[in-house]
TrEMBL record, chains A, B:
Organism field: Acidithiobacillus thiooxidans ATCC 19377
GO BP annotation list: negative regulation of DNA-templated transcription
Family matches, as NCBIfam families: hrcA (TIGR00331)
Gene that encodes the chain: hrcA
UniProt-recorded name of the protein: Heat-inducible transcription repressor HrcA
Record keyword Nucleotide-binding present: no
Similarity field: Belongs to the HrcA family.
Length: 341, 341
DNA sequence: TATTAGCACTCCTGATGGTTGAGTGCCAAG
DNA sequence: CTTGGCACTCAACCATCAGGAGTGCTAATA
């Protein structure tokens, strides 16, 4: 049973009003606000139907109604018209992400921050995947007796290092030799390939120098795995003054969940497939602490490839028509910024 | 007018009770709890005196009394007996910080986390000063045309890197030469010295290669300056369910302040002088958002030198006699852990 | 002189109850 | 199908009241 035109209009109007005011919407209010020449009684009938079909719910008998996550979903899919980014927001985005910033980390930070600032919600950026990076350079430095610092550099300028304990002291010459071997054999190759090769080559060897190489390999592996976990989040506290979550119990849960990141990362990585903005509304995320929230995310593309995803976390009741283009725009700009650097 | 023995005992007892229960303490309660054979009326007289002298205050006419920050200060200075670390806490501390962990960053993280966990408050660690580190190694890598990645390594294994844009493309040989020059001239010298020398030497030169060196110098400067700002904080939201700050307004302020770090860092750096645990109780910090909180901090010592400070932020009403040894112990262990690595 | 019992007073807290207003569901008339 | 009417529900607000904890003060006591 499809919704008729009038019902859709009323649903749209109701959700818009609720987003604007945050209070349940009653039949009188809605009848007036919707602009249709229609009596509250009629509206009540329609609302009752919409409630039956799961789009609305009333917090208690004599309150108005508020949208369910199903209602919001229908709203964003079928009723919503996104508005273009406001000039001021666009300005600010350009200002923060449009310039050349040499450091990747800084760019990511700027993006997270700007998301949080412009939306007054929590902003996040999943760090770029490194899977397709290639190895640019390796260095082994003897820091002290039996301690070697391994440094990995990728072609994009990622630098990662690790302290390795060795059984015997190794001379600078030996380490140099190892580094040279490493660079000559593997320099310019994709990290993943390097690791696979090393895994095979080092399977059964037990030489001391091979231990260094093995550790180096582990470092490489960590570089690939580490960013499985990494994610920048800013403005979690903005979630504090969402009246809808005021009951501190749920709030704590949410903040903890956001802090943990693990499940969140999992959720987001699933949304890296397409190249479009994606929404998780309320329970849709299948992740309990988020069930009162919505997540708006968009993948960002660097040199033609989706490297990560960014977005915001906020209340279900958020101005989607503005948030969506904002997240989208930020994703584009971040992609561009990262392509330059 | 010194406080007589009985007054001190009562003050102590009152504060202990208030720390335990969180509610204002009345004369009846106190008379019973203090173990003295004394009537509530007498206690009232004493309490009135203590209030006059600024140690106590009553939230309203017919509530009991609670300590002021002056009261707490007297308490910790003159009345408090710290208890030894509980075996379980000690165990946990050892478990988390007693092992060898190669990565400095990880150790610092572990310390922050364990502080927050054991105290159920916000834990922080100021990152170690690098001022006295020496330069171990410098590398310049051409990443692309006109982009050079500079990598600095200190003797402790800190690695820092920076992307430098150049006007002209530089060959690998040229960069190598620059790095060699750098390493030969400055390797093994303290960072600060390196920077000073470079500042002098490069004052008026304008060669392309000198630009690289200058950028490298800036990187070095950043390494020294950066950690002026850096501080790890964990468990901020433990502060959420302090009943004393429930009014979300103050709470937001506090969380923001903690997030900003700037003033906090400033406050803490002042407390790196001595080698003892230090407390800032309430307004003592001279930092408005903290005026309802206490900060317990302790400097940590690596190789005989104070390199940083760590501690916790919590309500004024905290079990100081346990928190103090805990912070102290953590500082010792962190110092030890960092000496090894 | 220090301590204590007694007493009047203050003020928070929680319960009670009435009123108001928004909103609903249903029914019968248009 | 729409609408006005109507009875009903319920949260929110407010005033009131009793109870209780606690105080300060005073006068008696040891």
């Amino acid at each position: 049973m499809a919704m008729d035109e009038r019902a859709r209009h009323l649903l749209k109007s109701l959700i818009e009003q609720h987003i604007a005011n945050g209070v349940p919407v009653g039949s009188r209010q809605l009848a007036k606000g919707a602009g249709l020449n229609i009596s509250p009684a009629t509206v009540r009938n329609v609302m009752a139907d919409l409630e039956d079909e799961g789009y609305l719910i009333s917090p208690h008998t004599s309150a108005g109604r508020i949208p369910t996550h199903v209602g919001y979903r229908f709203f964003v899919d079928a009723l919503l018209r996104v508005v273009p980014l406001s000039p001021e927001s666009h300005q600010l985005l350009i200002h923060r992400l449009g310039h050349y910033i040499p450091d990747t980390e800084q760019v990511l930070h700027a993006a997270t921050e700007v998301l949080s600032e412009l939306t007054h919600m929590a902003g996040f950026v999943r760090v770029p995947r490194r899977a397709n990076r290639t190895l640019r350079h390796v260095d082994f430095l003897a820091l002290r007796e039996k301690e070697v610092l391994a440094i990995f550099v990728t072609d994009k300028g990622d630098v990662e290092n690790r302290l390795i304990r060795t059984e015997h002291a190794l001379s600078a010459a030996e380490l140099n030799q190892a580094a040279n071997f490493f660079n000559e054999s593997y320099g310019g190759r994709p990290l993943q390939e390097v690791i696979q090769h090393l895994q095979r080559d080092l399977q059964q060897s037990r030489h001391e120098m091979d231990r260094i190489l093995r550790s180096a390999m582990e470092l490489g592996e960590e570089m690939l795995e580490e960013d499985q976990q990494r994610m920048l989040i800013e403005g979690e506290f903005q979630l504090l003054d969402l009246p809808e979550l005021a009951g501190s119990e749920r709030l704590r849960e949410l903040l903890n969940a956001v802090r943990q990141k693990r499940d969140l990362v999992h959720l987001l990585d699933g949304s890296m497939r397409g190249s479009e903005v994606r929404l998780f509304i309320g329970e849709e995320s299948g992740f309990a602490p988020l069930s009162d929230c919505s997540v708006v995310s968009a993948p960002y593309v660097v040199d033609g490839e989706v490297l990560g995803v960014l977005g915001v976390i906020g209340p279900m009741r958020m101005p989607y028509q503005q948030i969506i283009p904002l997240v989208d725009g930020t994703a584009h700009l971040l992609g561009r910024a990262l392509s330059q650097s």
